[in-house]
Design a protein that fits this description.
Elements lengths: L8 H14 L10 E7 L17 E7 L1 H9 L3 E3 L3 E5 L6 H10 L5 E3 H6 L10 H13 L2 H6 L2 H10 L10 E8 L2 E8 L34 E3 L1 H13 L3 E3 L5 H7 L3 E7 L2 E10 L9 E7 H11 L6 E4 L1 H10 L15 H12 L3 E4 L7 H15 L4 E6 L4 H11 L4 E5 L4 H12 L4 E6 H6 L1 H5 L3 E7 L10 H10 L2 E7 L8 H12 L11 H4 L5 H11 L3 E2 L12 E9 L3 H31 L4 H18 L1 H10 L1 H5 L4 H8 L3 H6 L3 H15 L4 E4 L3 H13 L4 E4 L5 H13 L4 E4 L14 E4 L6 H9 L10 E9 L3 H20 L11 H6 L8 H4 L3 H12 L1
Parallel strand pairs: 1-9, 5-6, 10-13, 14-19, 14-20, 15-17, 15-18, 16-17, 18-19, 21-26, 22-24, 22-25, 23-24, 25-26
Antiparallel strand pairs: 1-2, 2-8, 3-4, 4-7, 6-7, 10-11, 11-12
Length: 861
């Protein structure tokens, strides 16, 4: 016995009401979908703060109650919340089926199996006729369908499929036949080309593409939106003929009060922007509500234009409010400091004091970031009783930070946390400070080891010096800094080199300062949204970032810094040297491949042999040698003797191949030339800094220079802290003529006595190169000029390093300085890589010719 649907009074009432309102046209092109709007919690349309809640309402597509009433009335049976069925078996009457088909807009019908199979591509007009034929086939193959329809009827049906309103394109009714019943399942139409995205298209500028609607599979999540988005979506849906279901009756109140609204909401991934929502009382568009994304400056202007309008419902998201304060911040002179701040430093201090969340001080190395932060903290510390600040810095500059703090923030108790029980030291210092300000300074590693102790208190201010360390996202130090950030009200990230490899470096640092770890995550990553080599894109990026990132470079204060000249020395290696360098770069891989082949052959002959296990163990060891081959190749270019002294597996393989000793006998072209150069420079009264990435090269060069009569010291990770500090002090006093530094001394140190900087080997990233030069090119430099020398061994991996370094440097240059109208030739980056392109062979430039041409054009402009 066939099931039947129960027609209720509510069904009849809906139909009668529709016919009364629109006549018989109410039943023509009946829309299967409706839009339900429901508040997620308490919403008061008169409270402006409630308009900031971007999850205030749920918007969900549902089956239109009128459509359901019609379907039930003509004989369809509801199956679940959004499906209907009709009997089409042998004993079924054809009239209910004919009535159901007639009630359904033909443009929405699709065969379920075919439609779901083509889900990835969506349902397009080009397949409408073919789909219609399949629908007619499914229906007419049933007993009731064959009796109800003729070929002529289905010809009309297929012709109608290409005609219909846009609203129908938002609906798909899937048709299937099972055990003598036809099932009609209502879904939202699939957006073409968007895999598994069942959503409305963009309506009135409001994108709903992330909205999970009525999928072929059962469950769908509602879209969570703010009041203004909900209202605009509802108005757009109504214009298309979609019924609005408003069970809580909130729409009339929203429509009435939104006219007086003026609110600004945060824009995810764009901290410098706000979504400004203006009701008709405050906008000139004529729309009930106008919503647009604008910069912080436009928000400030809009609020000012409202003047004394006491009827306005004005609200700002706290993050928008913060960025507008930074936008209009006035410079702060800090006149009681022992040294006067320069105008750009006053501007940064003003921004720092204006924020209640955080800022990035991205000023170039040597421009006084330490002093700017200390000045801002001093202003706050003198105004806030019991102010507490923490600054996390590289270990080599702990003492330097302590000295600067005592000079520029003398009212504070300065605690330099070196070792021992940090928790006890902090507690004692806090007790002794009382209501006076306290500034604690510790190293990255100390912060990592004592994270719990540092997180046990709330800090008024937190600083991170050389904040590019945050780009090592998986490191223990970075994780510790993020944990501590959660326990600080305001943070300042300090780095003169905020971009190293890509735009995402800047995003990571900015996210930490603003304490939003997901700010530039996923699709919001800066590198996915903006192109560093396109000026218009860079300008858009800075609009999105806003004023919380502050950048000034040496070109703006060049008269207060030594003039920099850069010289690239292209040296021709001896054949034995080149063979060693290229052997490390390429031959180690060939050796490894030959070993793999031998092991596989041995295994195929006797896999149970103990010799096979030994061979596999040797293979694993050899793999480590291959992975270190690039590093060995760089070291070989610097000093063959350093490779000879290496205990690495790769060096042993190269030695067995007979490549090291012949190179050592040459004395090393670069080593010899640079030692002679330094002897001449020192003889002319110059003070020389030399940088290398290799501690073995550092020690070898120091020995060679001392044998040549040069007073030389080292600042290396292999030295003790006392030895490093002693040699640094001796160099600054003039007791040493040359100081050789590894990565341990690349950042933060004040070495203004130097007049020559030699980049003995090139780093892979521009940050390290710029930081090296920044040790000497600083305020207070004793030299009027600074000569930067970059020796490169021609035809070796050093050309490859330069070829990787330059595009990265150009990205940073374009984003940080050129977009501000700065002459690229006068910036740290421009000066650092000046002339370097000419030292790179065409082979190494292959595939990047346009980038190198652009570099040459910009730096020669």
């Amino acid at each position: 016995m066939a099931r039947s649907a129960k027609v209720t009074k509510s069904h009849r009432a809906l139909i009668d009401e529709a016919i009364k309102a629109k006549g018989v046209d109410a039943m023509r092109d009946l829309q299967p979908l409706a839009l339900s709007i429901t508040p997620t919690g308490r919403f008061d349309a008169r409270n402006p703060a409630h308009y900031l809640d971007q999850q205030a309402f749920e918007i969900t597509p549902v089956v239109d109650p009128l459509f359901e009433a019609v379907m039930v009335t003509v004989g369809a049976v509801p199956v679940g919340r959004r499906s209907f069925s009709v009997n089409v078996g042998e004993k079924a009457s054809p009239r209910p089926l004919a009535a159901v088909i007639e009630a359904i807009p033909t443009i929405t019908l699709y065969p379920a199996e075919r439609a779901e199979r083509n889900e990835r591509d969506g349902i397009g007009d080009e397949r409408a006729h073919n789909m219609g034929s399949q629908v007619s086939y499914i229906v007419t193959q049933t007993p009731a369908g064959a009796a109800a329809f003729t070929g002529n009827t289905w010809a009309i049906f297929n012709a109608q499929r290409n005609h219909g309103t846009g609203a129908f394109r938002r609906c798909a009714i899937y048709l299937s036949e099972t055990k003598g019943r036809l099932f009609f399942r209502i879904c939202t139409a699939h957006s073409a080309g968007k895999k598994r995205t069942w959503a409305f298209d963009e309506i009135e500028g409001v994108s709903l593409t992330n909205m999970h609607l009525m999928r072929p599979s059962e469950v769908s999540d509602p879209m969570l939106v703010s009041a203004d988005v909900a209202l605009r979506q509802v108005m757009a849906a109504e214009a298309e003929g979609l019924r609005i279901i408003d069970p809580k009756k909130v729409l009339p109140s929203i429509k009435r009060n939104v006219r007086r609204v003026a609110v600004a909401m945060a824009v995810p991934g764009s901290p410098g922007m706000a979504r400004l929502v203006l009701g008709s009382q405050h906008n000139s568009s004529g729309a009930l509500v106008d919503s647009r994304v604008v910069g912080a400056g436009a928000v400030v202007e809009t609020l000012a234009s409202l003047g004394q309008d006491e009827t306005a419902l004005v609200a700002l998201d706290p993050r928008v409010s913060d960025i507008t304060r930074v936008q209009v911040a006035s410079p702060v002179a800090c006149e009681t400091l022992p040294e006067a701040l320069r105008p750009f430093q006053q501007e940064m201090v003003g921004r720092h004091l204006a924020t209640t969340i955080g800022v990035v001080n991205g000023c170039a190395p040597g421009t006084g970031k330490t002093v700017m932060s200390l000045a801002a903290w001093r202003e706050k510390g003198l105004a806030i009783p019991q102010w507490r600040g923490l600054c996390v810095v590289p270990k080599p500059v702990l003492s330097q930070w302590g000295q600067e703090a005592e000079k520029f923030f003398p009212e504070a108790r300065v605690l330099v946390l070196r070792s021992g029980d940090l928790e006890v030291s902090l507690a004692r210092a806090e007790q002794e400070a009382g209501i006076e300000p306290l500034l604690a300074i510790c190293s990255y590693d100390a912060a990592r080891r004592n994270t719990d102790a540092l997180c046990a208190r709330q800090w008024d201010d937190l600083g991170c010096d050389e904040a590019a360390i945050l780009n090592s996202v998986g490191s223990g130090r970075t994780k510790a800094l993020w944990r501590i950030r959660d326990h600080a009200s305001v943070a300042v990230a300090m780095t003169g080199t905020p971009i190293d490899k890509s735009l995402d470096d800047l995003g990571i640092i900015g996210a930490w300062a603003r304490n939003e770890q997901e700010m530039f995550h996923g699709e919001r990553r800066l590198s996915r949204r903006f192109v560093a080599t396109e000026p218009a894109s860079v300008a858009s990026m800075w609009d999105a970032l806003g004023p919380f990132i502050f950048r000034r470079d040496r070109s703006e204060i060049a008269d207060q810094l030594p003039a920099i000249t850069t010289q690239t020395l292209l040296l021709d290696p001896e054949p034995a040297e080149k063979a060693l360098a290229e052997g490390a770069r390429h031959e180690l891989r060939a050796m490894y491949d030959r070993l793999v082949a031998a092991v596989e052959a041995a295994g195929s002959l006797d896999p149970d042999s103990p010799d096979f296990e030994i061979a596999k163990s040797e293979l694993r060891a050899a793999r480590g040698a291959v992975l270190g081959g690039v590093t060995l190749a760089r070291a070989a270019c610097c000093d063959p003797q350093a490779v000879k002294n290496s205990s690495s597996a790769g060096a042993a393989l190269l030695d067995n191949a007979g490549l090291i000793d012949p190179a050592v006998k040459t004395g090393g072209t670069k080593r010899r030339e640079i030692i002679n150069l330094i002897v001449d420079q020192v003889g002319n009264g110059e003070a020389v800094l030399m940088f290398t990435d290799f501690s073995g090269v550092c020690d070898s060069l120091a020995s060679g220079l001392r044998e040549a009569g040069v007073r030389c010291g080292t600042y290396s990770g292999s030295d003790t802290e006392r030895e490093r500090e002693a040699d640094k002090a001796a160099f600054m006093r003039g007791d040493l003529d040359c100081l050789i530094l590894t990565g341990a001394g690349r950042e933060g140190l004040n070495l203004q006595r130097a007049s020559v900087v030699i980049n003995y080997d090139l780093p892979w990233v521009p940050r390290q190169l710029i930081q090296r030069i920044g040790r000497a090119a600083r305020f207070g430099s004793s030299a009027d000029r600074l000569q930067v020398i970059i020796p490169i061994l021609a035809g070796t991996i050093e050309e490859r390093v330069a070829a990787v370094l330059i595009p990265r440097a150009m990205t940073a240059l374009a984003v940080l300085d050129v977009h501000r109208g700065i002459d690229a030739r006068e910036t740290e980056i421009g000066l650092a890589i000046s002339g370097l392109t000419e030292a790179i062979s065409d082979e190494e430039k292959e595939g990047q010719e346009s980038m190198f041409a652009l570099t040459a054009a910009i730096l020669a402009a």
